[in-house]
Amino acid sequence: MRNARILALAGVMWWGTTACPGGVVSPQAMADEPQSAVVIVYHRFGEDAYPSTSVTIEQFEQHLAILDEGGYQVLPLEEIVRGLAGERELPDRTVAITVDDTYRSILTEAMPRFLDRGFPFTVFINTDAVNNSLSSISWDDIRAMHEAGAAIGAQSAGHGHMAFMDRGRIEEDLARMTSDFINELGFVPKLFAYPYGEFSSELTAMLRDVGYVAAFGQHSGVAVEGANMFTLPRFALNERFGTPERFRTIVEALPMPVTGSLPLDMVIRRNSPNPPHIGFTVAGGVGALDRLACFPSNGSEVTLEILDRRVEVRLDRPFPPGRSRVNCTLPASEGRYRWLGIPFLVPGGEE
Predict the structure, then answer these.
(1) pTM for this structure?
(2) What is the mean pLDDT of the segment spanning 82-87?
(3) Angle between helical axes of 167-185 and 201-209 (0-180°, round to 10)
(4) If you placed Cys at 153, which of 36, 51, 112, 124 could pair as Cys (CB 3.0 to 4.6 Å)?
(5) How far apart are CA 77 and CA 125, in angstroms?
(6) 303 burial type by CB count under 10 A (0-12 exposed, 13-18 middle, 19+ buried)
(7) CA distance 40 to 308
């Protein structure tokens, strides 16, 4: 009962932290090309002992130079969410910068460079980790970042594998996180990032029900108007996937608007088929699908069955325990690619 009261209070407060903005539906919403944006996510900066979650400082500065000099529009994540909801216009090559977790290099390495470039950014906080070690930031640090212009997002309390938690554990975690935000910051963020990028249909429904506006994973893809606002993709960056060449490809990416996506849930349950039945219908404005290609992370051989605009993706082997994905791309004009990421999660791979 206490959890329900805290979550209900949070639901009242989310739009109360900033006035709920109105807006006119963008003329682009009426066109074939829907509103879209690339959202990137970092974790650590220059922490060479953790290459799977860190970028080198050289890579990071290359990324910032590309954004600064390449004609990109780096906008606050909240403004992009408004655009995806049709409440404002998003220009071409719109990008949002996000950072997950509470590592000190956010404060010491990333924030000064963001502020120097004038780039807005959002930090998603898992509240149990705040003040938890010498390598983590404090609530004073978070307040200072927020006062300097950083947006604060929510990322649970315990940073657990929430897709495998029962409803009671999820409610307890969200209630603890909500209480921390209210006590320390006086507000609760209205945007959420899933720990490890893992979500389930039950979890997304719970976040929607308690008043969140949008939630983000870590599966590659372009956030696009008309998509599920609680399974929005982000491109995760680390040393291996942080080269300037790949970064340019990412920030140049275009959306692949789809409907009727299967399966309905990222989680492949023990009684579900594996490999799963994968399918989606591509919007007509995208053009011909003859150059569509899909790349599963498990190394499967892929067969694409395309009937009109409907695409069925057949794999020849199951996904292993843990996180997997299928990335589908389609060449577009000016050397750009349309990009769709489909995430999967098999029990047994929790870290």
Answers:
(1) 0.90
(2) 95
(3) 40
(4) 124
(5) 15
(6) exposed
(7) 32
Residue 79, helix vs strand vs coil = helix
Instruction: Answer whether 38's CB lies under 8 Å from 250's CB.
Output: yes
DSSP per-residue string spanning 216-261: E----S-EETTS-TTSB--EE--STT--HHHHHHHHT-EE--EEEE
Helices (H), the chain: 2-13, 57-69, 77-84, 105, 111-117, 139-148, 167-185, 201-209, 244-251
Q: Which two tokens stand for residue 153?
A: 């997002």
The tens digit of pLDDT for each residue in 34-80 reads 999 999 999 999 999 999 999 999 999 999 999 999 999 999 999 99
In angstroms, the CA 327 to CA 58 distance is 27
Rounded to an integer, what distance in angstroms lies between the CA atom of residue 349 and that of residue 336? 34
User: Are β-strands 36-42 and 73-74 bridged in parallel, bridged antiparallel, or unpaired?
Assistant: unpaired
Backbone angles phi, psi at 213, to 5 degrees: -95, -35
- Cβ contacts of 307 within 8 Å, gap of 6 or more: none
- 3-state class (DSSP) for residue 266: coil
Strands 278-282 and 310-315: antiparallel
Q: What is the chain's length?
A: 351
- Residue 281 tokens, joined: 């219908």
